[in-house]
Amino acid sequence: MPLHTGDALVLRTYRLGESDRIVVLLTRDRGKKRGVARGGARSRKRFGGALEPFTHVRVAYQEREQRDLVRLDYADVLGSPLTAGGEACTYASYFAELLDEWAPENDPQERLYRLGVAVLEAMRSGVGAERLARYFEYWLLRLQGVYPSIRACPTCGAPLVGGAVLGPRSHWFLCRRCASHAEGVAMPAAALQFLAESAHVAPGALGDVTVPSEALVQLAAAHRLLLVWHLDREPKAARVLREINP
Ligand SMILES: [Zn+2]
Fold this sequence. Notes:
Layout: E1 3-16, E2 20-27, E3 31-37, H1 44-47, E4 56-62, E5 69-79, H2 88-102, H3 110-124, H4 129-143, E6 164-166, E7 173-174, E8 185-187, H5 189-198, H6 213-231, H7 236-244
Parallel strand pairs: 3-5
Antiparallel strand pairs: 1-2, 1-4, 2-3, 4-5, 6-7, 6-8
Helix pairs in contact: 2-3, 2-4, 2-7, 3-4, 4-6, 5-6
């Protein structure tokens, strides 16, 4: 049985029988893997806090012929969202759920992995969760090539300098003139500016980006529409977050 060691993000765990857990991991080099953590449900001694969603871990696991599940030997914590405290754990579950939705099985997705680790580190260093969440959603959709243009209106080609509107059915940012008769989510210029800056800064530097909270609220509404559109449903953790921050 080949033994692999490497770094990974924990995406999700669930119980397997009385004492074991299934752990879904996004490994840096080998994509998404499902593993069995023997004793992971009963004893916290063996895996400690390493199985919480969005924990950055160093793992060793064995692949078994003809089986989809690998066997997790150990998981050591490199970075935990638990130390960020407060609402961070709920956001951590949300980020982990989105990565789980988008990462295909056994297909290396190093950029997704790096996005997750960088956002976790930013969270641990105290960057605000709301701006991190908008950044994360933006990059997640961008890496899949489905984030709408923030530069120009797709209908008339006008630059989106004064803000835009996310059309309820088009899933593009339209200029205010083209969207004048449509409903949709208003995107203030400051929201588009935040996205333009997010394209260039690491998440750890987001604390220095000036963005009014109203712009983040509008971005949250726009991203919710885009995510539901692409996932066909609202992420479970997003509903929990809305109950915390209505
Ligand atoms: Zn237009």
